[in-house]
Design goal:
Elements (H helix, E strand, L loop, with lengths): L3 E5 L12 H13 L4 E4 L11 H15 L4 E5 L5 H14 L3 E5 L8 H14 L4 E5 L1 H4 L5 H7 L5 E6 L5 H10 L4 E4 L5 H6 L4 E4 L6 H12 L3 H17 L7 H9 L19 H10 L4
Parallel strand pairs: 1-2, 1-8, 2-3, 3-4, 4-5, 5-6, 6-7, 7-8
Helix pairs in contact: 1-2, 2-3, 3-4, 4-6, 6-7, 9-10, 10-12
Length: 291
C-alpha cells in the first residue's frame, strides 16, 4: 500500500512536556519538502507509551491536518489491551489517517493464537487498512511468520513492519505471504537488504534526521539499483547505529533538536541523551550530511 521511506516521526514537546503543535507542523512540512513517503504518527519513536488517549488522538488529528493530503499519514494505534487497540484504531480512522500501525501486545505476552485473535478483532471492528508491527526486543512478544500468514487473509491487514532484527525473518514472511502482504523493515540497518529481497520500504527512525537520503536509498533499492542503494546506505550506516546508542527515541530527539526543528524535551521515564554520546551522534549526522 505504501512504498519507500516512512518516517517514525518524533513528537515535539515543550519544556513542560505538553505537545508542541507548531513544532509538529514544522516537522510535517520538513518531511514533505525532503521526500519522505509517509509519516507514522505516535509510534514508539513518537513516545506513544507516555501520551494519554486524548493526546494520542490529538497528535494523529494534528498530523493529518498538517499533512493536508500532501503525504500519507499512518496512525500508531497498538495497545496491549484489544479493547484499547480498537478504540485507538477507530480514532486513527476518524482522524483521517490513511492506515493504522498496530504493535503486538506488550508485557502480557499472548500466545500465537492470542495474537491472531487480537489482530483479527481489531481488523473486524475498524475497516481502516492496518499494518502489523512485530518488535520482540521491545515487547517480549514475537509474532511468528505462520501467524502473520494467517492474518494476511484478512482484507484490511495490508502489511507488516518487521523488526525482529534478522534478515531471515522478513524473507520467510515474503515467501509465505507473497503479494498478499507488504513487508516493511523496522530496522534501518537492514532496510536495504529487505527491500532488495522484495520488501516495499522501511518505517524509519533515521528518516527523522536524514529524510532525503533515506528516501533516495529506499528508492534506489526499490528500483533494483544495487550500487546506488549500497553507496547511500553506507553514508547512513553510522547514523543508523548512533540513533540507538541509547534507547530510542532519546538520541533521535536530540539530533532533531540539534537541527533546530524542535526542542529536545522527552517525557519521563525517557531522559536526555548523555553528554558523552553527543559527539558520536553529531559525527554520524555529519557523515549523513545533515549537520
Amino acid at each position: 500500500m505504501f512504498r519507500g521511506s516512512m518516517v517514525a516521526m518524533v513528537t515535539p514537546m515543550h519544556e513542560d512536556g505538553s505537545v508542541d503543535e507548531e513544532g509538529l507542523k514544522r516537522l510535517v512540512d520538513f518531511h514533505v519538502d525532503n521526500g519522505t513517503d509517509a509519516i507514522v504518527a505516535v509510534g514508539t519513536t513518537g513516545e506513544a507509551a507516555t501520551l494519554d488517549y486524548d493526546e494520542h488522538c490529538h497528535v494523529m488529528r494534528l498530523t493529518v491536518e498538517a499533512a493536508r493530503k500532501r503525504i500519507a499519514v499512518i496512525g500508531g494505534s497498538g495497545a496491549n489491551s484489544t479493547w484499547e487497540a480498537i478504540k485507538l484504531t477507530r480514532c486513527a480512522m476518524d482522524a483521517g489517517c490513511d492506515a493504522a500501525l498496530l504493535i503486538t501486545p506488550y508485557y502480557n505476552k499472548p500466545t500465537q493464537e492470542g495474537l491472531y485473535q487480537h489482530f483479527h478483532a481489531v481488523a473486524e471492528a475498524v475497516p481502516i487498512p492496518q499494518i502489523l508491527y512485530n518488535v520482540p526486543g521491545r515487547t517480549a512478544c514475537d509474532m511468528l511468520p505462520e501467524t502473520i500468514e494467517r492474518l494476511a487473509d484478512i482484507p484490511n491487514i495490508v502489511a507488516v513492519k518487521e523488526a525482529h532484527g534478522t534478515i531471515q525473518r522478513p524473507r520467510e514472511i515474503l515467501e509465505r505471504c507473497g503479494d498478499r502482504l507488504d513487508v516493511y523493515s523496522g530496522d534501518d540497518g537492514n532496510a536495504r537488504e529487505i527491500i532488495l529481497a522484495g520488501g516495499k520500504g522501511c518505517i524509519s527512525v533515521s528518516a527523522n534526521v536524514a529524510p532525503k537520503l533515506m528516501h533516495d536509498m529506499c528508492m534506489a533499492a526499490l528500483d533494483g539499483d544495487l550500487e546506488r542503494a549500497e553507496a547511500l546506505d553506507a553514508q547512513l550506516a553510522a547514523l543508523h547505529k548512533a540513533l540507538f546508542i541509547e534507547t530510542s527515541p532519546i538520541p533521535v530527539k536530540w539530533a532533531v533538536s540539534e537541527m533546530g526543528l524542535m526542542g529536545p524535551t522527552l517525557r519521563l521515564p525517557m531522559t536526555p541523551l548523555s553528554e558523552p554520546h553527543h559527539e558520536t551522534v553529531r559525527q554520524a549526522m555529519k557523515l549523513a550530511e545533515v549537520a
